[in-house]
């Protein structure tokens, strides 16, 4: 087996490890919203809109990592 044949597997393993960051990021975002809503329920709307923007940014980074895992071979 040549090193070029192993490159695809290594990229997928790298992406699997890279999913930990977005997973933790999404958990922190919504944990903060839950905590903030518990402390100040009337600000739920403002916190949710900010949380959705943060969620979109974190997921965009995860999708970018997914694409790069398969493009760079």
From TrEMBL:
Protein name: ATP synthase subunit c
Organism lineage string: Bacteria, Bacillati, Actinomycetota, Actinomycetes, Propionibacteriales
Marked site positions, Reversibly protonated during proton transport: 59
Entry GO terms, CC: plasma membrane; proton-transporting ATP synthase complex; proton-transporting two-sector ATPase complex, proton-transporting domain
InterPro entries, per the entry: ATP_synth_csu_bac/chlpt, ATP_synth_F0_csu, ATP_synth_F0_csu_DDCD_BS, ATP_synth_F0_csu_sf, ATPase_proteolipid_c-like_dom, F/V-ATP_Csub_sf
Localization of this protein: Cell membrane; Membrane
Gene3D superfamilies found in the cross-reference section: F1F0 ATP synthase subunit C
Protein's membrane topology: Multi-pass membrane protein
One Pfam family this sequence matches: ATP-synt_C
Residues spanning the membrane: 12-31, 51-72
């Amino acid at each position: 087996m040549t090193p070029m044949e192993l490159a695809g597997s290594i990229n997928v393993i790298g992406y699997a490890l890279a999913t930990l960051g977005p997973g933790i990021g999404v958990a922190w975002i919504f944990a903060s919203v839950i905590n903030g809503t518990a402390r100040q329920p009337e600000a739920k709307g403002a916190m949710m809109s900010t949380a959705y923007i943060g969620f979109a940014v974190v997921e965009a980074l995860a999708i970018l990592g997914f694409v790069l895992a398969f493009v760079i071979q």
